[in-house]
Amino acid sequence: MKRSFLRTISQILGTILPNAYFKAWGGNPQIYQGKLKAFVAPILNCYACPSACVSCPAGSVQHFIALKAIPFYALGMIGAFGIMLGKATCGWICPFGFLQDLEFKLGRKIKLPHIKLPKWISYGRYIFLIGLVIIGPLLTIVPMIDDETGEVIVYENPETGKMEELFEPGLTTYCKFCPQGALQGGIPQVLLHPELKELLGRLFTTKMIFLGIFLLAFLMMKRPFCRGFCPVGAFLGLFNKVSLLQFSVDSSKCTKCRLCTYSCPVEHDIYKSPNSPDCNRCGACIDACKFGAISVTNIFSSVKTEIEEPVAT
Amino acid sequence: MKDSKKRAFPLWRRGAFLFLVALAALFIAHGIELLDVEEILTNASILCLSCIGIG
Prior knowledge:
A: mainly alpha; 2 domains; 7 strands; B: alpha+beta
């Protein structure tokens, strides 16, 4: 079976299975609250989606930081996937990645121009990870003030016996920007619960504008969101160099024809850096290479590398 | 003339892999112990208003 076909099947399952709480669409006003929700899936899948039955890693990390708690559990869960598979979940099961792949194919079909993104765009996702997922929720934690006295409310912590300040939880700052949240959480929730319309304001409008811009960009660019804006991909990509799953390029076979780069959903030059944080591990390059230079391996195996030998005269 | 030779991945990368496996296991175990599953579930079950665009 061809790898591209398998990947499409995997992406369809990756879109349906984490969102399989179909009761929510039949008028049940509650979002899924079962035990599966404790599972932090290594994909960008909004857990405000009515049918989402797993947690979003970016959302989970922000929620814990906003409560002044170190997100050990969420980081451990997503880190476990990263250590084993690197960024493979981005390439194989992420619903938002799948949407970008589909839209780009549609764009090619209707002959829209292909706009190539500069390499530096990949730094953007780290800015979003650090700025909006970590620092944003931290900076927005504020002390709780007593309305009458105007002083900070303090309480005695029963565990430590010390007086501590009460605080208002921080904001989930990345969620306020996230277009996947707007698409998967915002639009369906408002359609299912019209009473929410009264609460919508400038934030909802801004999110819809961001979503519109991205949906348009997906038609002409290869995975622009994954490359420049996704904090989940930024975190998972950090493991590509040390994960169990590794890619290798046999440079004695590689002719640097760049067929791999043209076929790559993120336009990565795999022959220059097989285990770069940019690579989504989708394997499109393996199918595209006519010389069999690229292969999947693991960190404990040996790989072929090129050596120069003196030419006999 | 070019030829190819089999080489192992650098030792630091193998070591980092094993270290990170242990660290992730520790984080998950400590996270569950610290918060208990009920609390994790409660956090995950709150409807995120920021995601919807309210706030």
